[in-house]
Amino acid sequence: TILNSHPDNLYMYYPEIKANLFQDWFAEKYKDYPKFTHQLSSQNIKSQLEALIKSISKNGISSNLQTIEKGYLKSLDILDVTDNINTENSLYTSTIINILKDRAGQNVSIVDIIKILSSDGFGLQEEIIYLLLVVLTSSSEINMKQRGGMEITATELEEVFKAGFRAFEGILYSVIIIV
Length: 179
Known about the structure:
Layout: H1 2-5, H2 14-29, H3 45-59, H4 67-75, H5 91-102, E1 108-109, H6 110-117, H7 126-138, E2 142-146, E3 151-152, H8 157-160, E4 171-176
Antiparallel strand pairs: 1-4, 2-3, 2-4
């Protein structure tokens, strides 16, 4: 461990000690935070999940996903054991669907969804919530709406998300698809 290596400065101790200091607090405050098979950090969350969003919006959720990408989706309970999409088992996608069902026929602000899923209990980062919204749109369970009213369906995902996360700057709402 780092403690046995006698680092030159205190900062080198921080990464090792941080996990031990905050792990119990984090687990209590964010009981429903996913346990990722591949580490997401403040340094890599944007690049990792943006690449996954671009892949899903271009190809859907398919067998072409890399092992790490499948790992993220499995950690969110979006893929079943045979790597098929199944959003019904995911607490996170189910929460979004329930929010939208409760307000069926209305545009639900993405900011409202972010507030709920980033609060105590979940503690999800915006990037994870954006991924969930793209997955639900890709599977034709919800649509998103851009500023100006253009509806984003699974068909439009590739074009809209060429810009990656920046696309969400113009996406204001989400709506349930009523079948």
